[in-house]
Amino acid sequence: MTKFNIFPAIDLLNGNCVRLLQGEFNQATIYKNNPLKQVSFFIESGFEWIHLVDLNAAMGENDNKKLILDILKSFGKDIKIQLGGGIRSADHIKFWIDNQVRRVIIGTLACENSDIINSIGKEFEKKIVLGIDVRKKLIAVHGWKKQLDLKPIDLIKRLDQSLIDAIIYTDISRDGALQGVNIDDTVELSKSVSIPIIASGGVSSVEEIKKLIHFNDDGIVGVILGKALYEKKISLNQIKDIFIK
Hints:
This protein is an alpha/beta fold and 245 residues long. It has one domain (5-243): Alpha-Beta Barrel (TIM Barrel). It is built from eleven helices and twelve strands. The chain has helices at residues 35-44, 55-59, 65-75, 90-98, 108-112, 114-118, 152-158, 183-192, 206-214, 227-230, 236-243; strands at residues 5-13, 16-21, 24-32, 49-54, 80-84, 103-106, 128-135, 138-141, 146-147, 164-171, 197-200, 220-225. Strands 1-4-5-6-7-10-11-12 form an eight-stranded parallel barrel, surrounded by five helices. It is globular, with a radius of gyration of 16 Å. The two termini are 16 Å apart.
């Protein structure tokens, strides 16, 4: 059994911590205007990982590179960071790994230039997370704005799976909506591949986390929490209680 992890999310937009509703930038809620304090809070709360996404970079509209480097310089030794958003070349991957990012999240690049991933070199083995964002079971890329006629399993078959440490599976229709994570589709994918799966999108209660942990033996190794944490739908004490045996 692989350890199950909770990944608190920090989505960066114009230097702020935000959450989007179904990926729509015009429906962004700003929760904290100091991301470094938010990272510090998550460290103090005992989390092992942080899920960090540069939404500006994902859309190709500026980026939060300086802020992310500040976070890595300040906290890179204190917590593991997986980073996504606009990482679309081998140079981007190498840059962030060299700057203390533990794992980079690849979505658009994997779909549009899978050869780059497959030829990147064994030094990046298990430092890549495949981000699979789906709308009606088909993958969307470029910050969820471009819909592809591509199923998750067909994308996975294109890639050198030995390089991939985990897959983040997000149902876009549920993201930021607090309507519940798509457990059925997440588990279905986990049973069809050998790569560990991290569930994402719409988690709204501690009961859902417990359900996901139930499928740990089927390859579900974690869950990303965003809005539910920021709006206190799930408390830190509830999370701690899950892992206290």
